[in-house]
Amino acid sequence: AAQCPARALVEQLLRKTAALRFSGQDSADASPAKGAEGGVNFVHGVILDRLLGGSQQHHILEELLDGNATDMEGFLRSRCATNPLAGEMLWKHYLGRGRPLGA
After folding, report:
1. Using an 8 Å Cβ cutoff, are 75 and 39 in contact?
2. Which of 37, 41, 67, 77 is the most exposed place for a label (fewest CB within 10 A)?
3. Burial (0-12, 13-18, 19+ Cβ within 10 Å), 48
4. C-alpha angle 59-63-69 in degrees, rounded to nearest 5
5. Which helix (H) or strand (E) holds 61?
6. Distance CA 28, CA 86 (A)
7. Torsion over CA: 5, 1, 67, 52 (sign)
8. What pLDDT digit, counting tens, does each position of 25-74 carry?
């Protein structure tokens, strides 16, 4: 299957920004309440939240679940309580992998 050009662009952006850290936003021991983004750094959280908020970009998030540019599962788990779409994407991902109990 051909990779979506938008996915390739977002993956490149995620890889280029993986090492960026912001004081008070990123911390190895930060809890979700203190700014941790569910396993992703602050910049990744901003990018992924933007994609999650725009219906035209949902397919990119779904495709990113198959990649390793960032912790998409952790990000979606951290958003499940406030965004039903995050939970639905994660559920579909787990079902597609034969892991229905993971969702």
Report:
1. yes
2. 67
3. buried
4. 130
5. helix 58-64
6. 23
7. positive
8. 665 544 443 344 567 889 999 999 999 998 888 999 999 998 889 999 99
User: Which residues contact residue 54 at a Cβ distance below 8 angstroms, ignoring those fewer than 6 apart?
Assistant: none
Alpha helix positions (H), the chain: 5-16, 42-53, 58-64, 72-79, 84-96
pLDDT tens digits, residue range 4-30? 789 999 999 999 998 888 777 665 544
pTM, full prediction: 0.78
One-letter amino acid of 6: A
Residue 67 DSSP symbol: S
